[in-house]
Amino acid sequence: MDKLIFLDNGATSFPKPEEVYTFMDNFYRNYGVNPGRSGYDLCLEAGELVETTRKMLTDFFNGKDPNRLCFTYNSTDALNLIINGMLKKGDHAITTTLEHNSVLRPLYHLYKYNGVEVDYIPFENKGFVDPDSFTKKFKKNTKLVIINHASNVIGTIQPIKEIGKYCRERGIPFAVDAAQSVGKVPVDIEDLNVDVVAFTGHKSLLGPTGIGGLYVREGIEIRHTRAGGTGVRSAVRTHLFEYPYRLEYGTLNTSGVAGLNAGVKWIEKKGLKNIHEHEMKLTTMLRDGLKDIEGVILYCQDDLTDHISILPFNIDGFEALNTGTILDVDYNIAARTGLHCAPLVHEQLGTDKIHGAVRFGIGPFNTEEHIKTAIEAVKEIAASQKKR
User: Which part of the chain is CATH 3.40.640.10?
Assistant: First the structure.
């Protein structure tokens, strides 16, 4: 394990900062009770951590009301709450072909079973959507525009500020999936004209799995589509309408909140800019090394401006799965292969016909030595394929 080169940070960050492991262990050993359910000291301590983390994340997104920062299990959970809580029969939604299945599948279910109309904006050759394309799709019944901030396949950061401006001018709610971007680049909802942002804790926020959330800007409402315990006002028969209870159900993953708290503190200490610059320096090094290898095909990597540290590629004539297996078995390099839960991206790239691509995802703990090893490994695999 010590020799593993982990280049699958697009799926989850690994390893985590040592501070995350230490804080989670200490918190759960000493304060691992149900927060907000009783008045004894341990319960109050656990509740205080939850509320401190809620405020920390609200500040991280430049939100105004910590109560509108709601914890979920991951970004998929948050996106389902958003989509199902903002759309109903007869509504129209706009998204893109860059989306993850956490957006595509809930929208498809609403289209198939509830009569919600959905338009999909394709990305252009360099991997970005044109903001003006959205204005051509707006309708009187458009009730939601939802897109990802950064693609989990090609790494492009979308022009959400411009898209959000168009939405705000027309009073259309604008939701953003920040699963890949938050913790790498700033996600300032006021500056970017975002109404709702969904995030996960286990990727670039460097927390554990099983924790995520969403922030809902004031003036935007999401219907609750679930019901359950909140720990307060238990005599009320209906689920509570006020935030955060409106979108939180049952006992929170408090150890996950603790890990998320420590992850965000580590990021703030290191600085977003420094983290992003480090990762993009390595991404540029990787891109430059791979593009010179005969038989290697890169996708939307010509210009790395407005990109995160994700790089997809294939070796001509070789299945992505086979490339990934050889990287793992022969070189101890972890990478992601396949369609990356984003089938429309691959359909547009044409890689769906060859079962997807290999994806390298660079994180804050990767080094130049890791990248040099990965480049040499791909070079050797491509050379062996050529000899066949």
Answer: 18-269
Residues 337/320, Cβ–Cβ less than 8 Å? yes
Cα 350 to Cα 14, 94, 108, 200, 343: the distances in Å are 30, 23, 22, 29, 10
Nearest alpha-carbon partner for 281 in 376, 171, 363, 182: 363
Q: Taking the domain 18-269, which CATH number applies? A: 3.40.640.10
- Nearest in space to 91 (alpha carbons), one of 136, 140, 20: 140
The pLDDT, as a whole number, for residue 387 is 66
Rounded CA separation 98/122 (Å): 7
CA distance 13 to 175: 24
Residues of the chain with CATH 3.90.1150.10: 5-15+271-387
Residues 55-98 have pLDDT tens digits of 999 999 999 999 999 999 999 999 999 999 999 999 999 999 99
**pLDDT digit string (tens) for 289-302?**
999 999 999 999 99
Which pair of structure tokens corresponds to residue 217? 């800007």
With 0.85 as the threshold, say if the pTM is over it.
yes
Residues 84-101 as b or e (16 or more Cβ within 10 Å = b): bbbbeeebbbbbbbbbbb
DSSP secondary structure letters along 126-157: TS---HHHHHTT--TTEEEEEEESB-TTT-BB
- CATH architecture, domain 5-15+271-387: Alpha-Beta Complex (3.90)
Judged on CB neighbours under 10 Å (0-12, 13-18, 19+), 190 is exposed
Q: What is the C-alpha separation between 207 and 169, in angstroms, rounded?
A: 36
Does residue 324 have a pLDDT over 60? yes
Environment class of 308 (CB within 10 Å of its CB; exposed 0-12, middle 13-18, buried 19+)? buried
CA distance 292 to 382: 11
